[in-house]
Amino acid sequence: xxxxxxxxxxxxxxxxxxxxxxxxxxxxxxxxxxxxxxxxxxxxxxxxxxxxxxxxxxxxxxxxxxxxxxxxxxxxxxxxxxxxxxxxxxxxxxxxxxxxxxxxxxxxxxxxxxxxxxxxxxxxxxxxxxxxxxxxxxxxxxxxxxxxxxxxxxxxxxxxxxxxxxxxxxxxxxxxxxxxxxxxxxxxxxxxxxxxxxxxxxxxxxxxxxxxxxxxxxxxxxxxxxxxxxxxxxxxxxxxxxxxxxxxxxxxxxxxxxxxxxxxxxxxxxxxxxxxxxxxxxxxxxxxxxxxxxxxxxxxxxxxxxxxxxxxxxxxxxxxxxxxxxxxxxxxxxxxxxxxxxxxxxxxxxxxxxxxxxxxxxxxx
Length: 365
Known about the structure:
alpha/beta; Aspartate Aminotransferase, domain 1; Aspartate Aminotransferase, domain 2; 4-stranded antiparallel β-sheet; 14 helices
């Protein structure tokens, strides 16, 4: 009889269901033989990346036989200059998921608790379960974070609170006044992770910038990524700002060379091209309006979003509609695993991609 290898895993890992990413176009091609495919499932930038990034990658190809700078000094320096923060506050990650994983490994253990909202990023419970800690899910209000309830959920066992702002997959957001009030009641020994992966898509004054909280609250960790507005999802570059003592701890569990050399070069070039980010934000705003109005004509609604995606309320089970859209060559994201069985999440694409989605959705419905 074969050994029960699952039983050999740690208890937390035994309970984990692997994270399910958006379906790749290649997989759909293999399954259905469809070739004219658009993917609006993974919140990728439809503009691609900055031309500066491509040039930076090209110039770095000759160094592929060399290990990258394990400290990522040039990228850290660029981030420090851009945000006007000390170098000692920065931790680099293989995507912002890596940052979340480092936080879990460094600050959570069996018996500890971590708090996150209902309908928030699926990686939070994965990180918590993997280290044997206990996740506390606080019910959402209007699909978003209920910070008052989250504050009330804090106990003597609470070590970390995850707040996605804007939230994935719902696109909801926490406004500045609510976050200010929240921090006033959070104990200083509880770490608050502000996951701002989609922050570059927001440009309104009522939206809080996590960086602004660092000097007032040393228990804040601000997590960001180059995967979304900067268009570097395939290279996996994330970063965090936090008190130097927190950064020191994170670097103790960070793997050496966790960001590869091409990714480091690309991120520096991407950060320097804020015009590209601005164009991405403008395209996203236009596309958000296009899809919102398009589904409303069909009698459907969306959850208002500050990300680069929308959750469309289908008023029926989402999985059959998702499957039917696949046969139209349109990949979106079912969110049944988030407790939203009658919704689909669609990434904002180009004008043509958005029209293709709307036409396919109309045909399916």
